[in-house]
Amino acid sequence: MLRSHYSNETISANIGDEVELCGWVDARRDHGGIVFFDLRDREGLIQVVADPSVGELELVKDIRLEYCLRIIGKIENRPQGTLNEELPTGKIEVHAKSVEVLNASDPLPFQLDKADNVDEQIRYQYRYLDLRRPRIQRNLRIRATVNGAIRKSFTEQGFTEVETPLLIASTPEGARDFVVPSRLSPGKFYALPQSPQLFKQLLMVGGIDKYFQIAKCLRDEDLRADRQFEFTQLDMEMSFASQADVLDSVTAVLENVAAQVAPDVERSFETMTWFDAMDRYGIDKPDLRFDTPLIECTQIFNETEFRAFQAESIKALCVQTQGDISRSKLDEMTEKSKKLGAGGLVWMRVTDEGVDSPVAKFLTDDEISELKNVTQAKTGDLLLLVASDWHTTCDVLGTLRNDLLRPPVSNPPLKFLWVTDFPLFEGLNDQGKPVPAHHPFTMPHPDDREKVEQLSEQIKLGQELDEVFVRSIRSQSYDAVLNGWELGSGSVRIHRADIQCHIFDILGISQAEQNSRFGFLLDAFRFGAPPHAGYAFGIDRLVAILAGEDNIREVSAYPKTQTGQDPLSKAPSSIDEAQLAELGLNIRPEVLAQDQQD
Ligand code: ASP
Question: Which residue segments constitute the domains of the chain, with CATH numbers given?
Answer without folding.
Answer: 7-103 (2.40.50.140), 291-405 (3.30.1360.30), 422-475+496-529 (no CATH)
